[in-house]
Amino acid sequence: MRLGLVLSEAANGLRRNASMVVSVVLVTFISLTFVGAAILMQMQIGQMKNFWYDRAQVGIYMCTAISPGETCTGGEASQDQIDSVKAQLESATLSPFVDKYYFETHEQAFENFKKQFAGNPVADYVTPDQLNQTFWVNLKDPSQSDVLVESLSGVAGVENVADQRKYLDQIFSVLNAASYTAIGIAALMLVAAALLIATTIRLSAFSRRRELGIMRLVGASNRFIQTPFILEGVFAALLGSLLAGGAILALVQWFVQGFLGSRLTGFSLVGMQDALLVVPILLVVGAVLAAFSANFAITRYLKV
User: Fold this and answer.
1) Which of 46, 70, 113, 298 is the 20 to 30 A CA-CA neighbour of 254?
2) 158 beta partners
3) How far apart are CA 284 and CA 280, in angstroms?
4) Between the CA of residue 21 and those of 9, 14, 210, 237, 285, what are the distances in Å?
């Protein structure tokens, strides 16, 4: 098979169907941009889980004068009850699970509350004695937080024992839902791109039906006839894939690292090294999708 002749036929096909080729490029670009964004989002969720789960604390909230519950019938937690919780954290039973802990007083909780709700009118109606004194515990293995929860829940003077990972799970479930939505949209767009590529190839073959008839009469093999059409589809899809890769790189560089990075300084965000891993995936997906669709379309056409 002469490579020059095959490439020439593919170039002629692209020129004859320029408008359809542009449509394929745009649909491939949009669909693969969604695919790349979904992959990056999953990478970001993974990084955030690794970052925050290791820093998640267990909060042991001591009773206040207004706390409800059977363990707070005596009102404000006494110093003896606070010392009892501290002793349990340092006991032979719980200390193997505890990495470190610190105690937050009413005043410290109030200062943190004012910082968190600065400018919010609610801060004017809260007093220090309404906020819990709290033991904040970092565990050596955050997945073993149930040991601490079971040991200290129901202890006199303890209003509640809360694992921060449960709140993180709710946040990550929302992020996962958004990621899955992006994947679903990307899948639909990829189907549309595959159908558009197949239609483009069939129209290109139809416009050259006399040439194809002559080629078959002179004994040209199906492989020789099919290859230029497959190359047309692959070229258009690769161009769309390159545009999608450029969009992903720009998204990470200017939006994630630039805009978000300057505002979310305490977060671990995906970087260019992650984006550079995504780009080859987009190129492979685009090329394989186009080759499969084009091959299916031209094979069906030649059988008619």
Assistant:
1) 46
2) 62
3) 6
4) 15, 7, 22, 9, 18
Cβ neighbors of 88 (< 8 A, separation 6 or more) are: 94, 151, 152, 155
Residues 279-299: tens digit of each pLDDT? 999 999 988 888 888 778 777
Long-range pairs for 268-272 at CB < 8 Å and ≥24 separation? 268/47, 268/48, 268/50, 268/51, 269/44, 269/47, 270/40, 270/43, 270/44, 270/47
Parallel/antiparallel/unpaired status of strands 158-163 and 57-62: antiparallel
pTM over cut 0.85: no
CA 75, 80, 85, 87: dihedral to nearest 10 degrees?
Answer: 180
pLDDT tens for 160-189 read 998 877 777 777 787 778 778 878 887 888
For residue 82, the one-letter residue type is I
Are 41 and 179 spatial neighbours (Cβ–Cβ below 8 Å)?
A: yes
- According to DSSP, residue 130 is labeled G
Tell me if 197 sits within 8 A of 229, measured CB to CB: no
CA-to-CA separations, 244 to 19, 20, 185, in angstroms, rounded = 19, 18, 15
Minimum mean pLDDT range among 137-141, 225-229, 237-241, 272-276 = 225-229
Instruction: Please state, in angstroms and rounded to a whole number, the distance separating the CA atoms of residues 76 and 78.
Output: 6
Distance CA 247, CA 45 (A): 20
In the block, which residue shows the tokens 């492979």? 284
Phi, psi for residue 100 in degrees, rounded to 5: -160, 165
User: What is the average pLDDT across 100-129?
Assistant: 84
Starting at the edge strand found earlier in the chain, the sheet holding 134-139 runs 98-104, 134-139, 57-62, 158-163
Q: Phi then psi for 159, rounded to 5 degrees? A: -75, -45
More confident residue, 210 or 158: 158
Question: How many other CB atoms are found less than 10 A from the CB of residue 29?
Answer: 24
